[in-house]
């Protein structure tokens, strides 16, 4: 692939990332921008760089959860106690639940969604393309087109 091909692919993925963010926001989920204050919670959406396979989607829990989890780990570095096990179980449950919710939302919105295959982020999703317009986007676009047609007719 040439640099121009990579730049074109990156641009298309940035557009797809914006579409993914819009769909999650329309569903009522918070989406992090990367400039959010500490303690922010929500979906993290990025173009998959450098592989350029698609757009990755993951969930960031609140720092209240992670701070308490780190404190428990500091007190039990071998992770042998019940408290560390409970934090691990909760982290997995949150990751699974949010990944499933986001997968369902994005799929219903017309996007092609799979697991990312990242062993270090087991609940991370990969959005590779838009198969159809989301119903709310299709309605909004049709309304805009009708307004444009009415203005041209005048």
Describe this structure in words.
The chain is an alpha+beta fold. The chain has one domain (3-60, 100-153). Helices cover 54% and strands 16% of the residues. The chain has a five-stranded mixed β-sheet with strand order 1-2-3-5-4, with helices on one face. It is elongated and about 75 Å long. The chain starts with a helix and ends with a helix. The model has no long low-confidence stretch (mean pLDDT 91).
Short description:
The protein has helices at residues 3-26, 63-75, 82-108, 135-153, and strands at 31-32, 42-47, 55-60, 111-115, 125-130. The longest helix has 27 residues, at 82-108. It contains 4 helices and 5 strands; from the N terminus they run αβββααββα.
**Overall geometric form:** elongated
Question: How much of the residues is beta strand, in percent?
Answer: 15-25%
Task: State the domain count.
Answer: 1
Overall SS class: alpha+beta
Compute the number of helices.
4
| Main pleated-sheet profile | 5 strands, mixed
- In terms of per-residue confidence, which ranges show pLDDT below 50 for 5 or more consecutive residues? none
